[in-house]
Structures are given as structure tokens and as C-alpha cells.
């Protein structure tokens, strides 16, 4: 790793990792999936999966990244050059490219809404909120402009490098995200009938849980932690040997669960306060929340605050997706980071266009009963992400010598060898079995 750029501090790495983990999964996808899957029971499943499956997986990616000192593609090839699994990182790069191709579209929608919020064009707009959302996602020049601005912001940060780009941005945006969340939660909890929303969110009701909900809970634990596509392999390749991997991973997981918890407390009390159905689907934040904020004193300001929070979380998460692709080219081909970033950004912009236009001019293109955007989301979240996680779980325990993994696990850490043994047994048996079973059953149920 001589000469390789590193995170300047542990807090910088943790905030960047938390930023990668906390994004659309926690703020956009989590609330509506909770609403559609029974509330508290789904949240409980999500927490259990995150601790028993997501945390061990995050530690595994950190070990692979720091242990190899390489980005996603090079890491697996270095650690197990003769194994058939050495191409696992390639799947991660492809998966991140597909993920970013629809993720950036939603990021573009948020950019548009932030601009409308700044000019006070959401609350009080003559269009109904569902009509406004529909107009934005079906109007080509609006979706393309939002997509372009979102990708440009990503490119500018990634081109600046690890310390001056990702770390600097994360140190600014992540504390603001938590501050904004706390303000919104306090306001939401003081609304009339707010406790009904809290009860729905936190009181388990397993009668609504289906295999599809179990699959979504497992997928959400991957999606919200950014594991399965080796994003964290790339991030941890810049991590100092002095830092504790188990401690860093646990901190990121706790922050992620905390944000999901705050998202639920910010949204569901407000939704129930105004008698809105919590299972509104993907449009919940764009169509329902303006209705809520409209009826709250200083609602315009609170709505803009929420949209900025939404943007911060989304863009810090997308940094990791673009970084894994850029790092693969920079390290393997020794090309300029800045030139590579702009080239990859341009390619990703083009790759995202079909998803951006899937509700408008390409709306008639339907595959497997889904438009391009929904199909890409399904393939990434329900197929490639758990498949990638399964391959990583197998790789860490069966392609690398146990002693090598143990040394990296304990390096810079005060955790006991018994903690390593517990983690190793989880990765050997529980993690791959749970991922495999739920993955297969989920495919049967949802296709």
C-alpha cells in the first residue's frame, strides 16, 4: 500500500462508510417498505438481519479490502489468485454500475424537488402533489437535467480523491444529516395522533409478514449497509492498519440502524397524524409528505429541510458506487483519477438515461411486468445484491486461510479471539445459509 492514499482519520472513514450505507435505502426505500410490510414486525426483522447478517458481512468486506490493500476487482484476485471466485469483485463493479443507473435517477428527482423547494414551488403549487410528481418523472428534460446535476456533483467529489473529496464531503454532510433528522423527528412527534404512527412503526404485528417481506428485510439490510457489491472493500482498502475493523463496522451498523429508526419516527407519526395510508409505495416521500408539511406551521421550511437531508444522504451513498468503478480503472490501468472519473461519470450518465426515461418516452417498454427503472431496481436489490453477498460470504471463509483472516480481524483491535471465532462461525454457516434460503424462496415468490 506504499504511496496509496488513506483516510486521514478513523472518524473520516466511519463517516464516509456511514454515508455510503445511509442513503435511499434508509430514507426513501425503508419507510415505504415498512409501510407495505406490516410496520414494527418488518423493522424488527430488519434489525435482526442487520446485526446477524449485515454486520458480519460488513466486517468481511472490510477484511478483504484492508487485507489486500486493493479495490474491489484487485482485492479478490490478490487474496485468492487461483480460486474461481477471484472474479467476485467484477460482479460488484457491474452491480454498482446498475445500482447507480437508477439510484442517480432518484437523486435527480431530489435535485429537482430541492430546487422547487428553494423557490417555494411545492407547497402551494397549483398541481396536486401526485400530479406534480408524475409531471417531473415523465418530462424528459426535467429528469435528464436532474440526473445530470446529480452525476456532476458526484464526479466533482470523486475526482478530488479520498481525503479532499469523499472524506471532506462526508465530514460536512453526515453531521448535518443527523441534525436535520433530529429536528424533523421532534416536530413529527409533537403532531396530533403521532403516537399511532409510533405504535405502527415499533409494535410488531407478524400477521402481515410474508416471504416477500422477509426477502425485503434481508435485502434492506444489504441495501442500507452497502454490502454485497464490494463498495466497502474499496473504501476499506484506504484504511490504516492501526484501526479496529470490528469496532468501525459496529459503529457504522449502529449509525445505520439509528438513521432507519429516526426515518421511521420522522415519517410515520406525520403520516398517521393526517390519516394517510402508510403503504403508499415509492412515491410516499414525494407525494405524501408535501401533503403533511402543508398542514404544519412553517411547513415549507420543514419540507425543504427534509429534502436537503434526503439529498445529503443520497449523494454520500452514491459516492461509494462511483468510487468502486473509478478505483477499478485507476488502480488496474494506472490512469489519472480526474480523467477517469469524468469518463466514468459520462458513461454512467448515459447508462442511467433508460431508467430516467422509463416513466416517460420509454414507458411502453415493459419487461417481466416492470418498466426499465423498476426492473433494474428489482434485479439489483433482489438478485445481484444477495448473490454478491453470498459469494463474499463463501469467499471469506473458503478461499482465504483462516489464520490470515484472523490476523486482519484482530489487527488494531482489542476484541478477544473468541469474538473472532463467533464471527467466523456466523460467516461459515448462518450467513450463507440464510442468504441462500431467503434468496431462493424470494425469487420463487416474486417472479
Structural class by helix and strand composition: mainly alpha
Q: Secondary-structure element sequence?
A: HHHHHHHHHHHHHHHHHH
Q: What's the overall average pLDDT, rounded?
A: 85
Helix content: over 70%
Biggest pleated sheet: none
Which range does the strand content fall in? Answer: under 5%
Counted by DSSP, the helix tally is 18
CATH topology: Hydantoin permease
Specify the overall morphology: globular
- Mind telling me the CATH class? Mainly Alpha
The low-confidence parts are none
CATH architecture: Orthogonal Bundle
Write a structural description.
By secondary structure, the protein is mainly α. It is built from 18 helices and no strands. It has helices at residues 10-21, 24-36, 40-68, 72-79, 88-118, 129-138, 140-159, 162-189, 194-202, 211-223, 231-236, 245-273, 284-294, 299-333, 337-356, 372-398, 402-410, 417-446. Helix 5 packs antiparallel against helix 14, helix 8 (162-189) packs antiparallel against helix 14 (299-333) and helix 14 (299-333) crosses helix 15. The chain starts with 9 loop residues before the first helix and ends with a helix.
Amino acid at each position: 500500500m506504499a504511496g496509496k492514499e488513506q483516510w486521514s482519520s478513523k472518524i473520516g472513514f466511519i463517516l464516509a462508510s456511514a454515508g455510503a450505507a445511509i442513503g435511499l435505502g434508509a430514507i426513501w426505500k425503508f419507510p415505504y417498505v415498512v409501510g407495505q410490510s406490516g410496520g414494527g414486525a418488518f423493522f424488527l426483522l430488519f434489525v435482526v438481519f442487520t446485526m446477524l447478517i449485515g454486520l458480519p458481512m460488513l466486517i468481511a468486506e472490510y477484511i478483504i479490502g484492508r487485507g489486500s490493500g486493493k479495490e474491489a476487482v484487485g482485492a479478490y484476485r490478490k487474496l485468492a489468485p487461483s480460486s474461481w471466485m477471484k472474479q467476485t469483485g467484477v460482479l460488484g463493479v457491474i452491480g454498482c454500475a446498475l445500482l447507480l443507473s437508477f439510484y442517480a435517477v432518484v437523486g435527480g428527482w431530489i435535485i429537482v424537488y430541492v430546487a422547487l423547494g428553494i423557490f417555494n414551488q411545492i407547497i402551494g403549487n397549483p398541481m396536486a402533489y401526485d400530479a406534480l410528481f408524475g409531471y417531473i418523472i415523465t418530462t424528459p428534460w426535467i429528469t435528464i437535467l436532474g440526473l445530470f446535476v446529480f452525476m456532476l456533483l458526484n464526479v466533482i467529489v470523486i475526482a478530488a480523491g479520498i481525503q479532499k473529496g469523499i472524506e471532506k464531503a462526508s465530514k460536512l454532510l453526515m453531521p448535518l444529516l443527523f441534525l436535520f433528522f433530529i429536528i424533523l423527528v421532534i416536530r413529527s412527534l409533537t403532531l396530533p395522533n403521532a403516537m399511532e404512527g409510533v405504535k405502527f412503526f415499533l409494535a410488531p404485528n407478524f400477521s402481515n409478514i410474508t416471504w416477500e417481506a422477509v426477502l425485503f428485510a434481508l435485502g434492506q439490510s444489504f441495501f442500507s449497509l452497502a454490502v454485497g457489491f464490494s463498495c466497502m472493500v474499496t473504501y476499506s482498502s484506504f484504511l490504516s492498519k492501526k484501526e479496529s475493523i470490528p469496532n468501525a463496522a459496529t459503529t457504522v451498523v449502529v449509525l445505520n440502524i439509528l438513521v432507519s429508526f429516526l426515518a421511521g419516527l420522522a415519517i410515520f407519526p406525520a403520516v398517521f397524524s393526517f390519516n394517510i395510508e402508510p403503504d403508499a409505495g415509492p412515491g410516499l416521500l414525494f407525494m405524501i409528505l408535501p401533503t403533511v408539511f402543508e398542514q404544519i406551521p412553517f411547513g415549507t421550511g420543514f419540507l425543504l429541510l427534509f429534502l436537503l437531508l434526503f439529498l445529503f444522504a443520497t449523494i454520500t451513498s452514491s459516492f461509494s458506487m462511483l468510487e468502486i468503478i473509478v478505483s477499478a480503472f485507476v488502480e488496474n490501468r494506472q490512469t489519472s483519477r480526474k480523467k477517469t472519473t469524468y469518463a466514468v461519470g459520462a458513461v454512467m450518465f448515459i447508462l442511467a438515461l433508460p431508467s430516467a426515461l422509463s416513466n416517460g418516452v420509454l414507458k411502453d417498454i415493459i419487461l417481466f411486468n416492470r418498466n426499465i427503472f423498476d426492473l433494474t431496481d428489482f434485479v439489483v436489490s433482489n438478485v445481484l445484491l444477495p448473490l454478491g453477498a453470498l459469494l463474499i460470504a463463501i469467499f471469506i471463509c473458503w478461499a482465504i486461510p483462516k489464520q490470515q483472516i484472523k490476523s486482519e480481524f484482530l489487527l488494531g483491535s482489542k476484541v478477544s479471539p473468541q469474538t473472532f471465532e463467533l464471527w467466523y462461525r456466523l460467516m461459515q454457516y448462518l450467513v450463507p445459509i440464510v442468504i441462500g434460503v431467503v434468496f431462493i424462496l424470494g425469487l420463487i415468490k416474486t417472479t
